[in-house]
Design a protein that fits this description.
alpha+beta; 2 domains; two-stranded antiparallel ribbon; 10 helices; 6 strands; 15% strand
Length: 220
Amino acid sequence: MNFEQSWAAFLERERKTAKGRRLERLMADLTGEKKMFETVLWPVFRSFDGFSLEYELKSTSGVSIFVDALYHPLRLAFESEGFVPHAENITRDRFAFERMRIRTLALYGYKYIPFSWDELDRKAESCQRYLYEFLGRYTGSDDPSLQELTVYEREVLRYALRVNRPIQMRDVLFCLGVKKDAGRHVLKRLMAKRIIRPSGRGRQKIRAYVLDDRAYNYVL
């Protein structure tokens, strides 16, 4: 599917699972969010897998905050910011609230990556280059030993190393924040690359996976 078709399917999926204030936001004008995906996120990721739109978080005081786009596998918070609502006409209370939002994201372990409307409109390629460079440094893809792995595959490998036990499908879904079909695809690719193998002797119904010896070549 092209971007317009993929965006429509993504938006419909997000609306079906949303409720309350999040649903209200998803039903409102999403011009800024759509432009950010179309000009930067879609060209880089080529997929909406792992993303949530208008994601809701609670601050330490119980106040709801919303993030334009959250990428779960790498805990990245993307925002499209217009000059007028975010700078030109901002009040003291709104300025303080925006600082609280950024602190809340940091508290939850998210990296905050904002783009201005002018950047998206006039400097999209520069924004894409930044994101490519950021992903390269953040995921370790500059390391030759990791170049043949996708972002998802690297994250599952790191997760398996961190927990130091056999992993199951639910671990992959938790780690990546994707649907079961996408998780199954990642596991199949890791098995094909001999990075993971089934745990135990059974092969008909694989319930858990362990790291193959070859996996350690990617991190040592």
